[in-house]
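Internal ticket #5521
Category: modeling
Description: The requester needs a full-assembly model to guide mutagenesis choices. All entity lines are attached below as received. Residue total reported by intake: 843.
Assigned to: D.W.
Attached entities:
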Amino acid sequence: MKDQGAPVVLQVEDLWFRYPSAERPALRGINLTVQRGETIGIIGSSGAGKSTLCQAIRGIIPHSSPGEVEGRVKAFGVDITSELRVDLGARIGLVLQDPEAQIIGMTVAEDLAFGPENYEVDPAVIAERSLRYLDLVGLHGLLDRDTYALSGGQKQRLAIASALMSEPELLILDEPTSELDPLGKDQLFAVIDRLRQNDDHTVIVVEHEVDRLVRVADRIVVIDNGAILAAGTPLEVFTGPGVYARTAGERLPAAAELIARSTDAGLLINPVATLDLEDAMAQIVLRLETAR
Amino acid sequence: MSETPIIDVADVHFSYGPGLPEVLKGVNLSIQRGEFVAVVGQNGAGKTTLAKHFNGLNKATLGKVKIAGQPVEDQALAVIARTIGYCYQNPDHQIFSSSVVKEVGFGPGNLGYPPDQVNSLVENALKLVGLTALRDAHPFSLGRGQRQLVAVASVLAMDPPVLVIDEPTTGMDRKGSAAIMELLSQWASDGRSIIAITHDMDIVAEYIPRSIVMSGGEIIADGPTQEVFRNQAALTRAHLVAPAAVVVSDRLVSYGVKYARSVDDAVQQVTSICGGRRSHAGRV
Amino acid sequence: MPVGYSIYRDRPSPIHKRIDPRTKMLWLVVLFGVALSFNQPIILGVVAVGLLLVARVAKLTWSDLRAFLLLSLWLLLLSVAIWPAYIHQGSMLFAVGPVAVTGPGLLFGLAMGLRIDIMLIAASIWMMTTSPQLLTAGLLAIGLPYKAGLAMASAIRFIPLMNAERVTIVEAQRARGLDLAHGNPARRAFRAAPVLVPLFSRAFLTAQNLTVAMDARGFGAGKTRTNIIRLDFTPLDRMICALAVIVLIGSVVLRLMGIGGLIGGTG
């Protein structure tokens, strides 16, 4: 069933979508191709259409959440927009923002088992996977814990583990750290980093935490007003002329902001594009040295 | 001339019940009228627990808390609400009315003000947050950022001299964060005391003059943000990371750059230091 | 005080670990049946003591049971105080106002109290010895449709969440001057809108998001599902179930034969 070799995991082709009672479309002609093993970071302001896109990629839109749709999403080469493909559900995982609204089981074990149980996976396999994915997300030893007793950060990591239990090839994370404190954010991004090191996982992360995001993303996609404003490597998107227009006013990684502002102020003439704060500061230091 | 602090916390200890571990372990704090203060720290450090002592929701197990010189334990919550306005993190934990006006009027109504006064308090609060045009809108039809403003307006309508706001920028994009922080700064310069509980170090550096760092139920640093954010020992102990603005200005301090509130601020300082002098190595 | 999903207490007892939830369910029904069969206080008293022994075997402690025992005691006293007003057989012992209190009246009150106590304590022991997962698994095994079981489990899942939300909402509204402490119950209920509206809207929203999460994890993907919980109906279970059936039939028969009835008829 899994075509392990297929390089293109996701293809969004000219996707338009409008919610039933909305005046304007939420998605306007999205085109996106994702290769196997990539980690894609999506940024954009609130209401830009990021969550809508995530749900469309998973097939929740338009099947569970109807509306007017044009264009298509092809997952693993199959059109999942025009027809409901339940068999592909296990291959795409989705983790949402609110930790509370994703916990289904009363214990960690029960929550982890929910997904594979739905796909009729053998209990022995479920047990083995549970331990493996708990380790991956750093919740080792908490198999029998009651889920209400977990912290917000632990609940989010459990949500990721539970999404991984059906062994999806594509994992979508929609603002997973927005309700977490800095330590929680670090731990969650560490999980994304671990997933990234496994070539089989393709990950799409929607986030506002750009500094952490650029450390794990192969490509960044900027969504503004339902359309893709810019796409490319983090360096391509966050550095170079026109960066503010390209990123629709969202926060820039610190190094990028430093270089952009310095360039605008005439301090740096031909800056070396970098997302490393040390390298960026070194360029400023050089400028200050030569001005002495 | 020493003025009575608007909030005075003296050696406060707190635990949720006898035999339960202490969540606050001897906190001392004094906030003057008109100050704009940030309380930072990880979840579990005791920030919200401490803040709930200010409006009487938590009663100290040991030590004393005084609001405007009066001990908090002597006063009813409804009375304290006239002095301390507490705005919760999630506006959906407060909003229940069918119109913004009714929602904002709930607080002053509870305080027993006559209808005319309630109306003028409501209008004023709506003006302060910029929601006058949406006065008749249904709060649930508004976006998250606007609902946040409705919640803040609801608290401001009681016209408290002190506003405590919990995580004002969580889950917001850059525009939303900037908007709320600009408003808070404006109210602070108008004379309102503001206490912001947050873990967003960037906005603290940019907007908030005084910072209190909490860790493990104690205050481990308290002072001007520019000093506190350079106290690496305290930040490390609290599992916090200094914002980029501080990292950059620290790096450039030997060139004359002083504490920067934001990366942009640092760049502006560097620009004026370079004084328009062209770099000798400059080339196109 | 943290509210969990249930009052389940995990103990290393045979009742927890070696008995199938279905067996325990049957015994609960049987105990109800036994309590309803008799109205003789001595027999009911013996059953009640037997229950306490079962609690002992289940390694439940006094603090686990305290709330239920206190409630039971209170109901017992209430019952003894009230029933003599309705039962007038036998000779009068003393009078309380217009009510003639007789021996049989007191004993009947005692019996009725014990009856309720048995049902209360049996139900609480049942809940304390069966985890919600096993309980749900047991119900599914006897034919409850999966969706109903999931709905039930989700409802239970919401209890601690809604409790925490309620606490936060009440605090937030009290900080806006809402007064829930004074006034008669009717007026206080009316004032509860500021708590109930946000609470219900949070519940709806969370439930809606939860359905998206369930969809995303394949709910309803196949016609059947596997379950990590496997129930094992052992010979021990068979024996205990057989015993339960015998006890129930025996109780009914005895009562019909006139034994165990303090006062005739079906009372």
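Resolution: model delivered.
Comment from assignee: Chain A has two domains: 8-236, 253-292.
Ticket closed.
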